[in-house]
Specification:
The chain is an all-alpha fold. Helix content is 76%, strand content 0%. It starts with a helix and ends in a 12-residue tail after the last helix. It binds fe (ii) ion (FE2) (2 copies).
Length: 181
């Protein structure tokens, strides 16, 4: 599957989970766990693989994307720390949804079309395959396998630093694993 198609299908899944959470009828704890794992894995493959591979296509938009991931991760952490019966729960679901709506729309309407214009079909398929494999590994490891504990550092910060290291030193590959929980 093309990288952009894979990411779009994951966007739809994330939106569906948020919609279910917002509706308030289902098992919040299970849904929230599923959302956290999917969102963390989706952001990880973008941060670790997709963004570094396509950064040259639109450097500003990729930098903005890392920042939006960082904010979404903080919003997700606040939600995970909230009991479903608290007044804040629904407000935090909606705040996360709105942050993500903006980010996913920007990716699909601005970043992905630029990527589709810049990479050929084989490169997009190869990138998609690499990301799919990594997604399954991260999803199996769960949210805590990629998201740092605490409030000061997000996985986006760790990933961005890691992907920039080889450019400065010129010889090291980006780390695939990072300390998390
Ligand atoms: Fe993203
Ligand atoms: Fe995305």
């Amino acid at each position: 599957m093309k990288a952009t198609s894979l990411l779009e299908s994951q966007h739809r899944r994330i939106e569906a989970l948020l919609k279910q959470l917002e509706s308030g009828v289902a098992d919040h704890q299970a849904l929230l766990g599923e959302l956290a794992d999917h969102l963390a894995a989706h952001m990880a493959i973008e941060q670790d693989i997709f963004y570094p591979a396509i950064k040259r296509v639109n450097d500003d938009l990729v930098n903005e994307s890392y920042e939006e991931h960082a904010l979404a991760e903080v919003a997700l952490k606040r939600l995970l720390a909230t009991a479903p019966e608290d007044d804040e729960f629904r407000a935090r679901v909606i705040a996360l949804k709105e942050l993500l709506q903006h980010h996913l729309q920007e990716e699909e309407e601005e970043l992905f079309p630029a990527v589709l214009g810049a990479l050929d079909k084989d490169a997009l398929e190869q990138l998609g395959q690499t990301m799919q494999q990594r997604f399954e590994v991260v999803l199996a490891g769960g949210y805590a396998s990629v998201v740092p504990k605490g409030w000061s550092t997000t996985s986006a910060d760790v990933s961005k630093q890691s992907s920039q290291r080889p450019a400065r030193k010129g010889s090291h590959r980006p780390k695939n694993s990072r300390s998390a929980a």
